[in-house]
């Protein structure tokens, strides 16, 4: 934290203004954020810290969205089911989806080949982005409409996947010509983006595991709280 403050001060001395800081989502980064004055708590979120060279300026803090996505994927696999106000998301639906095989799904949705490792392996970071994708949610919707018994209660899973996918699109935006939530952060897109952020906050504070333990109070809370901190920033 002290080195970061020193660096920001040196940049200010040569005319560079730091508006925001992004770190990975590790235990060390969390400790650094807290040392800077960031509060990562669902009930008391503080997303900015004082600029070391300007008493009137605050610097926003972000966690890297790819790391947060991987943490949520790992939490989802660990809990197997996540309950929230709109239903319940089940990891088993993803396992069943992979078990159907790409050939059977060819006419519905084209799924990434790497999803074949979903059941037995911890996915790499880029595969987590494939799990939380609109294409996987659409495939589940198609299977639901076909009446397959294994997917008759997957509406909660679809909702959860789409919400996390939308959050990731917002914070992973890097193309000035992007469309929808993948577009740049512009004033005219504010209401559309804000709806997703409000929905995420409303749902994430209600998440619980199968034993009704509140997830954002437990050991696997950082992925969810990290996105809420980013939303505040």
TrEMBL record:
Pfam families: TNP-like_GBD. Residues 66-184 form the Transposable element P transposase-like GTP-binding insertion domain. This is THAP domain containing 9. It comes from Canis lupus familiaris (Dog). The gene is thap9.
């Amino acid at each position: 934290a002290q080195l970061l403050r020193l660096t920001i001060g040196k940049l200010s001395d040569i005319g560079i203004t730091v508006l925001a800081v992004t770190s990975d989502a590790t235990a060390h980064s969390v400790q650094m954020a807290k040392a800077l004055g960031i509060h990562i708590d669902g009930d008391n979120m503080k997303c900015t810290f004082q600029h070391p060279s300007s008493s009137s300026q605050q610097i926003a803090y972000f966690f890297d969205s790819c790391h947060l996505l991987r943490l949520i994927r790992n939490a989802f696999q660990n809990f197997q089911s996540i309950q929230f106000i709109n239903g319940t998301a089940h990891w088993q639906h993803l396992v069943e989806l992979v078990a159907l095989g790409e050939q059977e799904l060819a006419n519905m949705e084209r799924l990434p080949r790497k999803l074949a490792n979903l059941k037995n392996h911890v996915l790499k970071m880029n595969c987590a982005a494939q799990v939380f994708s609109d294409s996987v949610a659409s495939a589940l919707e198609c299977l639901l409409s076909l009446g397959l018994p294994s997917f008759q209660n997957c509406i909660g899973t679809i909702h959860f996947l789409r919400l996390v996918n939308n959050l990731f699109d917002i914070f992973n935006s890097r193309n000035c010509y992007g469309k929808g939530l993948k577009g740049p952060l512009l004033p005219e897109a504010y209401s559309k983006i804000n709806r997703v952020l409000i929905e995420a906050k409303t749902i994430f504070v209600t998440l619980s595991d199968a034993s009704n333990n509140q997830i954002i109070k437990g050991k696997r809370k950082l992925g969810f709280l990290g996105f809420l901190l980013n939303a505040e920033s």
